[in-house]
UniProtKB/TrEMBL annotation, chain A:
<dbReference type="InterPro" id="IPR004088">
    <property type="entry name" value="KH_dom_type_1"/>
</dbReference>
<keyword id="KW-0698">rRNA processing</keyword>
<dbReference type="InterPro" id="IPR025721">
    <property type="entry name" value="Exosome_cplx_N_dom"/>
</dbReference>
<feature type="domain" description="K Homology">
    <location>
        <begin position="139"/>
        <end position="179"/>
    </location>
</feature>
<keyword id="KW-0694">RNA-binding</keyword>
<dbReference type="GO" id="GO:0000176">
    <property type="term" value="C:nuclear exosome (RNase complex)"/>
</dbReference>
<feature type="domain" description="Exosome complex component N-terminal">
    <location>
        <begin position="26"/>
        <end position="63"/>
    </location>
</feature>
<protein>
    <submittedName>
        <fullName>Exosome component 2</fullName>
    </submittedName>
</protein>
<dbReference type="Pfam" id="PF14382">
    <property type="entry name" value="ECR1_N"/>
</dbReference>
TrEMBL record, chain B:
<dbReference type="GO" id="GO:0000176">
    <property type="term" value="C:nuclear exosome (RNase complex)"/>
</dbReference>
<dbReference type="GO" id="GO:0071035">
    <property type="term" value="P:nuclear polyadenylation-dependent rRNA catabolic process"/>
</dbReference>
<dbReference type="InterPro" id="IPR020568">
    <property type="entry name" value="Ribosomal_Su5_D2-typ_SF"/>
</dbReference>
<dbReference type="InterPro" id="IPR015847">
    <property type="entry name" value="ExoRNase_PH_dom2"/>
</dbReference>
<dbReference type="GO" id="GO:0071038">
    <property type="term" value="P:TRAMP-dependent tRNA surveillance pathway"/>
</dbReference>
<dbReference type="GO" id="GO:0000467">
    <property type="term" value="P:exonucleolytic trimming to generate mature 3'-end of 5.8S rRNA from tricistronic rRNA transcript (SSU-rRNA, 5.8S rRNA, LSU-rRNA)"/>
</dbReference>
<feature type="domain" description="Exoribonuclease phosphorolytic">
    <location>
        <begin position="196"/>
        <end position="261"/>
    </location>
</feature>
<comment type="subunit">
    <text>Component of the RNA exosome core complex (Exo-9), composed of EXOSC1, EXOSC2, EXOSC3, EXOSC4, EXOSC5, EXOSC6, EXOSC7, EXOSC8 and EXOSC9; within the complex interacts with EXOSC2 and EXOSC4. The catalytically inactive RNA exosome core complex (Exo-9) associates with the catalytic subunit EXOSC10/RRP6. Exo-9 may associate with DIS3 to form the nucleolar exosome complex, or DIS3L to form the cytoplasmic exosome complex. Exo-9 is formed by a hexameric base ring consisting of the heterodimers EXOSC4-EXOSC9, EXOSC5-EXOSC8 and EXOSC6-EXOSC7, and a cap ring consisting of EXOSC1, EXOSC2 and EXOSC3.</text>
</comment>
<dbReference type="GO" id="GO:0005730">
    <property type="term" value="C:nucleolus"/>
</dbReference>
Length: 263, 291
């Protein structure tokens, strides 16, 4: 039985704790980026009165002659080929839909899918035309900002610590116990409702808390960062990871390890 | 309450986890999430408090105003509760959507304070049958992340602890007319004693066990919950069952025992935090809303 109450502590600005020398050029909508007309406009900018103005809040990125603003926190914008994890909220109520789909998918179910096409209003159409996609069974869902999920070759990871994770580009991260044998014939639409072992549960809970810590500290999420964070959290109890001071310590250690690995 | 949609498999996962005393975020069945409490956040109230419990964010303001006592209790002041579920908390509360939940919470607060010992109402009386202090307690729900009742009761207790009621004197002149005099010193106030103010402990029944401080996902897996209001000495002032499921009388007894244990710990933690904050004095660094 544990109960902890504390007084709130003001959050330190991230740049202080990172110790960065080069500060990012941050803008808000309406800020002038540059008055130099030689640049090409990228995402998040528009031309007005001979100057380049930002249309989103974020940091300015410059690649040669292209200037764009990368938003810090944004709604998910679909791209063809993205992997997403989604929840069914509504469905078509037609006769053929009832016959075909009701047995497999219900409202509230989670699925993993790939983006097939993007419409002009931003809506996306998804497909599950591969055996690795489909209905998701037992596990834990963590919702983070889509801008924190790094674009990689594969978003399905079987982590060595004993669980698997799907990093959806839309910010939905699904953590689940690694299936013992690959069920090639089922195709993932029949859920396994047997109890998950306690050891697997501990790994999943720890991963979930690590991902929440990384997201709170605005770190990019990919398999290496999650794994380093998991390893850094091992000395602590699972429920202590979410305490502010322990969260900072673990994420700091992860950050250092990632920098060492790059450099 | 705000509802989250969950798939069957997710619910099964949560229920099995609770049976093994390992919840999704690693807590045991009787562990609370980390709570942050801060008082005196709203400057134009007599007392205020803000409580953050995981994703649940509550702001309470107490205003002391003078009025006439109720007819059946001429020697006492009283408390009035009002709960506003802000549309910021969840889109369901837009417009009049949050009114039902707000009245439910306000009625629960009236019930738990409806006894002689929670707050010393006689100290709120200025002159019998004529003047008394009425404490208007306004609760604002900023964010809804599960376990609303517990967070609100903690915030109400913290705000009442922080309330400063100006000291007044009743003067009678020769013609028998009464005049109320406010002291010149703005810091000359009376403080309420919140020793017996109860806190609510919500116990959600999930499977065969019950959990304390449920998140929104866990609340979606539970069919019945018990709200128990406990004082710092472990005395139960009121109990209420919510949800469409049924509870076995034996499990009700077990849940009551758990709530008394957990309630006492809740009160000691809250008292220590409030005293610690008070000892930092008026010059402490206030975090407020932009921290």
């Amino acid at each position: 039985m544990a109960m902890e109450m504390r007084l709130p502590v003001a959050r330190k600005p991230l740049s202080e704790s990172l110790g960065r020398e080069t500060k990012k050029h941050l803008v808000v909508p309406g800020d002038t980026i540059t008055t130099d007309t030689g640049f090409m406009r990228g995402h998040g900018t528009y031309m007005g009165e001979e100057k380049l103005i930002a249309s989103v809040a974020g940091s300015v990125e410059r690649v040669n002659k292209l200037v764009c603003v990368k938003a810090l926190k944004t709604r998910y914008n679909g791209e063809v080929g993205d992997i997403v994890v989604g929840r069914i909220t509504e469905r078509r109520r037609s006769a053929e839909d009832e016959l075909a789909m009701r047995g497999f998918l219900q409202e509230g179910d989670l699925i993993s899918a790939e983006v097939q096409a993007v419409f002009s209003d931003g809506a996306v159409s998804l497909h599950t035309r591969s055996l690795k996609y489909g209905k998701l069974g037992q596990g834990v869902l963590v919702q983070v900002s889509p801008s924190l999920v790094k674009r990689q070759k594969t978003h399905f990871h079987d982590l060595p610590c004993g669980a698997s994770v799907i990093l959806g580009n839309n910010g939905f991260v699904w953590i689940y116990p690694t299936p013992e044998h690959k069920e090639e014939d089922a195709g993932g639409f029949i859920a396994n409702l047997e109890p998950v072992s306690l050891a697997d549960r501990e790994v999943i809970s720890r991963l979930r808390n690590c991902i929440v810590s990384l997201a709170t500290q605005r770190m990019m999420l990919y398999d290496t960062s999650i794994l380093y964070c998991y390893e850094a959290s091992l000395p602590h109890q699972i429920k202590d990871i979410l305490k502010p001071e322990i969260m900072e310590e673990i994420v700091m250690e992860t950050r250092q390890r990632l920098l060492e690995q790059e450099g | 309450m705000a509802f989250v949609a969950l798939s069957e498999a997710e619910k099964v996962y949560i229920v099995h986890g609770v049976q093994e005393d390992l919840r999704v975020d690693g807590r045991g069945c009787e562990d609370y999430r980390c709570v942050e409490v801060e008082t005196d956040v709203v400057s134009n109230t007599s007392g205020s408090a803000r409580v953050k419990l995981g994703h649940t964010d509550i702001l309470v303001g107490v205003k002391a105003e003078m009025g006439t006592p109720k007819l059946e209790k001429p020697n006492e002041g009283y408390l009035e509760f009002f709960v506003d579920c802000s549309a910021n908390a969840t889109p369901e509360f837009e417009g009049r959507g949050g009114d039902d939940l707000g009245t439910e919470i306000a009625n629960t607060l009236y019930r738990i304070f409806n006894n002689k010992s929670s707050v010393d109402l006689k100290s709120l009386c200025i002159s019998p049958r004529e003047h008394c202090w009425i404490l208007y307690v306004d609760v604002l729900l900023l964010e809804c992340g599960g376990n609303l009742f517990d967070a609100i009761s903690i915030a109400v207790k913290a705000a009442l602890f922080n309330t400063r009621i100006p000291r007044v004197r009743v003067l009678e002149d020769e013609e028998g007319l009464k005049d109320i005099e406010l002291s010149d010193d703005p810091y000359d106030c009376i403080q309420l004693s919140v020793e017996n103010v109860p806190c609510i402990v919500t116990l959600c029944k999930i499977g065969y066990r019950h959990v304390v401080d449920a998140t929104l996902q866990e609340e979606a897996c539970s069919l019945a919950s018990l709200l128990v209001s406990v004082t710092s000495k472990g005395v139960v002032t009121c109990m209420r069952k919510v949800g469409k499921g049924s509870l076995d009388p034996e499990s009700v007894f077990e849940m009551m025992e758990t709530s008394k244990r957990v309630g006492k710990l809740l009160h000691t933690s809250l008292q220590s935090v409030l005293h610690k904050e008070e000892s930092l004095g008026p010059k402490r660094q206030k975090v407020g809303f932009l921290g």
